[in-house]
Amino acid sequence: MEEERSVSLLQFMGNERLVPSAEEEEKRRNIVQKLRQIVLSWIKKVAWQRGIPKRQIAAASATILPYGSYGLGVHGPESDIDALCVGPYFATMADDFFIVLQNMLKSRPEVSEIHSVKDAKVPLMRFKFDGVSVDLPYAQLKVLNIPQNVDVLNPYFMRNIDDTSWKSLSGVRANKCILQLVPDLKNFQSMLRCVKLWAKRRGVYGNLFGYMGGVHLAILAAYICQKHPNASLNALITNFFHTFACWPWPTPVMLHDGMSRTAANATETRSFIPIQLPCSPYEYCHSNITRSTFYRIRTEFLRGLTMTRDVLKPDFDWGSVFEPFPYSKKYARFVKIYLSAPNLDDLGDWVGWVKSRFRCLLTMLEEVQGFCDPYPTEYVDMEKTEPNVVFYWALQPGKNNFVDVDLVEQEFMNISNGYQGSPGKMELSIVLASQLPKNPQFDNGSWKNTRACWKILDKEKSKIPVYSQHFPHYTVGYAAANDDAEYLCTGG
After folding, report:
1. Cα–Cα distances in Å, from 489 out to 200, 418, 483?
2. Where is each Poly(A) polymerase nucleotidyltransferase domain found (predicted)?
């Protein structure tokens, strides 16, 4: 029965199309290779502009290091590519990365929707390359030549780098350590695919929204794999829920790497779910988890434990474990967060900046409301002519109906004084569940953090996107418009 349950789970994963096809894999490999060629040309150009001697120009190099789900081999057909650009000592982030390289990327026919997020903890460029979304941060090493597959765990390359570069490198370093520490890579990858699907379906995935990100789930999955090296996939999933539903938070989760552990950083152990990065005994995963989102995560761990207790019963169905979270049935009121800007370029930068500060907005709403559940999906208000993005965050059931969102909006906008450029517009309002966009996502939950397409549509010619049966967020065409004015946009 144990083996049968593992086989049925693998069949479930296949039905959900969690694994990309050979053609999709090849497309991503080509994108990474093209990006490597671009940054190599970029670094030669920067070296020449800076008057570097010809001999050093010939030796100078830069590279691209994939990480995240793609780097771990657990990406899906619609997953983004997280790729770190690593450059030498003379290539700066402010001028050479965000200006010279960005202009080179803009000139490429494969690149579209490029935006900079400069004020985040890990500054990056975000764009689409041949239709695939790419997040590209930058790290500057104090060397001239960067090997294509530079060893980011080698102290030689890590010496004297700045704090921002260190943070940018942490994802790549964590990936490499995880892959070295798991006892069975195939089992780990299958388990992590399942765990990520569960987190997305149950609405507890998305670091910017106060939930767990990819690196958090990867380390939790690797921890279970280390504790149960010979377990089947079925047993790994059930042990995952049992372990973390009963975990004595805020005790940190740490992978075993044969190193002696020192006292944990006091700031991180005060966080709700501290998870130590495997590449350093002093570093923890960056977390935006708040009181509300910690409650939701714990609740979902406990639900998973309850659901998988009957995993060996004949009538057990994996689909029930991954059933989407029913937002519109669970909550009666939502905060509508409306973000807009005069044009698409400004909107992309503005939305990126606001999202990087969502934790601040979430804690503000918690102060006046007590509980807030951020729904990690973007919408577009089609009634508005200006480019816009809309979010809906659920409020505590049974709480006083009055929420002074105007005060919250004013306090949050006060922090936009540090925004580089002209800030866009932000409006908060309270809507009832009956006023949510007419979309099954709210009734059945969502399994993909979609991105808004930010297109301005002529209201006379606006169309309703028709989504694929197999990919609920993939547009296959458009139907004639009706009275519904707000739609979910597809993501990369």
Report:
1. 17, 29, 17
2. 2-182
**Phi-psi category of 443—alpha, beta or left, where left has phi over 0 and alpha has psi -120 to 50?**
alpha
Residue range(s) of every CATH 3.30.460.10 domain in the chain? 22-169
Please give the angle made by the CA atoms of 409, 348 and 108, to the nearest 5 degrees: 170
Q: Which tokens go with 237?
A: 């999933």
CATH number for the domain running over 327-488: 3.30.70.590
- Please say whether the beta carbons of 122 and 138 come within 8 A: no
HSE of 357, CA atoms in CB hemisphere, 13 A: 20
Domain with CATH 3.30.70.590 in the chain: 327-488
Contact in structure between 132 and 26 (CB atoms under 8 Å): no
* b (16+ CB within 10 A) / e for 125-160: bbbbbeebbbbbbbbbbebbebeeebebeeeebbee
Is position 214 annotated in a ligand binding site? Answer: yes
CATH number of the domain at 22-169, please? Answer: 3.30.460.10
pLDDT in tens, 332-345: 999 999 999 999 88
215 is in an annotated binding site: yes
14 known member of a binding site: no
CB under 8 A, 24+ apart: contacts of 311-315: 311/5, 311/234, 311/238, 312/1, 312/2, 312/5
Best CA proximity match to 38, nearest among 93, 88, 111, 94: 111
Q: Which sign does the torsion angle of CA 393, 171, 253, 230 carry? A: positive
80 is in an annotated binding site: yes
Identify the architecture of domain 182-321 in CATH: Orthogonal Bundle (1.10)
How far apart are the C-alpha atoms of 413 and 428, rounded to whole Å?
Answer: 11
Structure tokens at 283: 């570093």
The 8-class DSSP code of residue 100 comes to I
pTM for this model (two decimals):
0.86
Residues of the chain with CATH 1.10.1410.10: 182-321
Rounded to whole angstroms, the Cα distance separating 81 from 133 reads 6
Q: Which pLDDT tens digit goes with each residue over 226-262?
A: 999 999 999 999 999 999 999 999 999 999 866 545 5
SS3 (DSSP) at 491: coil
Asked if residue 483 belongs to a known ligand binding site, the reply is no
Q: Which amino acid is at 403?
A: V
pLDDT at 470: 33
The DSSP-derived string for 38-60 is HHHHHHHHHHHHTT--HHHHHH-
Spell out the residues 6+ positions from residue 344 whose beta carbon is closer than 8 angstroms to its own.
113, 387, 454, 455, 456
